[in-house]
Write a structure and sequence with these properties.
single chain; alpha/beta; Aspartate Aminotransferase, domain 2; Aspartate Aminotransferase, domain 1; seven-stranded mixed sheet; five-stranded mixed sheet; 14 helices; binds pyridoxal-5'-phosphate
Length: 390
């Protein structure tokens, strides 16, 4: 019924636009943990809320449609979705995983999966030859994030899928940074898309949630069994918050991406900024691949100042963005990877990956570009002044 609509329309005009029995235009929040069965022999669609809940199901159907997958599943956090998806693997399997993977995923792979006999190798996924070189006999999964955090490195999704298929491996993509509004990995042959819906999908810094979407029904059924077994399902209030946030996903990302582009251009010209990382910039090494496989550059960028002192002065002066971990919200969020997302990594390891003491990450919100640029301009003056005064 909705297949021909554009993404923007699909966000609103879906099966859950209104509820059949009352006409309610918001998905009802169904708190019940258990469901009365009318027939001794034939149970209804819902019996127990860990196994299935109408509010959670509405979100699961919505994300499956938006990603173009067969089955969507909602979890209590992004990490719950990612960890549960890893349970598709078995003892003795090997995972090839992007070296700049999200910190929580890094922790799961290196300190949990290893105890269950699942091996891993970290590899630079922007280099397909490197990836090919590290595929082993027991490799069962290629795991990618594109663009990656915090340096916005771009991986060629179709290239990875080709390698995976040639070696009978699955491909997972963490699509948190772009969402299906800008990137649809399943269309490019990926098997499972994962999300921290805590970020852009819900969009308001007010809920923790995770989503997984499988391309085919068989894998969907296996992942559903794991969701039901592990039990890290999303609560109904939270499912409702994600559903509400998703209605404005397109307009939020469109606006924030435009502002991110303006800011990237401004930062690139500023004398105090050593480097800007944004896949929308023509001199970004992944620009061509990114442009080919997405509908936009997104709302996250990183930039590098001289050193930690410059960062400190800038952050102490800047007024509009909140200074916090996380991303993908209506308010701009400025993060300091060295002390936040990558605090657990040694300085040497960080520097090897280009995550210097001068690096800041910005997730652009819905404030006006002019206000943000003026705020940044003023804060750069503070950096200058301090330096002159020293
Ligand atoms: C935040 C994040 C996660 C983890 O999601 P939670 O909802 O915090 O558990 C995973 N991947 C990426 C890329 C993220 O930004």
């Amino acid at each position: 019924m909705t297949n021909n609509y554009s993404f923007q329309t699909k966000l609103l005009h879906n099966k859950h636009k209104f509820e059949e029995t009352t006409g309610a235009v918001s998905v009802p929040i169904q708190h019940a943990s258990t469901f009365h069965q009318n027939d001794f022999d034939q149970y209804g669609k819902f019996d127990y809320s860990r196994s299935g809940n109408p509010t959670r199901a509405a979100l699961e159907e919505a994300i499956a449609e938006l990603e173009g997958g067969a089955r969507g599943l909602a979890f209590s956090s992004g990490m719950a979705a990612i960890s549960t998806a890893f349970l598709l693997l078995s003892q003795g399997d090997h995972v090839l995983i992007t070296e700049d993977v999200y910190g929580g995923t890094y922790r799961m792979v290196t300190s949990v999966l290893n105890r269950f006999g699942i091996e891993h190798t970290f590899v630079d996924m922007t280099d397909l030859h490197e990836v090919a070189r590290h595929i082993k006999e027991n490799t069962k999964l290629l795991y990618i994030e594109t663009p990656s955090n915090p340096l916005l490195k771009v991986t060629d999704i179709e290239g990875i899928v080709k390698l995976a298929k040639a070696h009978d491996c699955l491909t997972f993509v963490d699509n948190t940074f772009l969402t299906p509004a800008l990137q649809r990995p399943l269309d490019l042959g990926v098997d499972v898309v994962l999300h921290s819906a805590t970020k852009f999908l819900s969009g308001h810094s007010d809920v923790l949630a995770g989503l997984a979407v499988t391309k085919d029904e068989e894998l969907g059924q296996r992942l559903y069994q794991l969701q039901n077994s592990f039990g890290a399902v999303l609560g109904v209030q939270d499912a409702w918050l994600v559903l509400r946030g998703m209605k404005t996903l397109h307009v939020r990302l469109e606006q924030s991406s435009k502002t991110a582009e303006a800011l990237a251009n401004f930062l690139q010209k500023h004398e105090l900024v050593k480097k800007v990382y944004y896949p929308g910039l023509k001199d970004h090494p992944g620009h061509a691949v990114h442009t080919y496989q997405t509908n936009g550059a997104g709302a996250v960028l990183s930039f590098e100042l001289e050193d930690q002192e410059a960062v400190r002065q800038f952050v102490n002066s800047v007024k509009i963005p909140v200074f916090a971990v996380s991303l993908g919200a209506v308010e701009s969020i400025l993060s300091y990877p060295a002390n936040m997302s990558h605090a657990a990594m040694s300085r040497e390891e960080r520097y090897k990956r280009g995550i210097t003491d001068g690096l800041l990450r910005l997730s652009v919100g819905l404030e006006s570009a002019e206000d943000l640029i003026a705020d940044f301009e003023e804060s750069f003056l503070a950096v200058n002044k301090e330096k002159v005064n020293q």
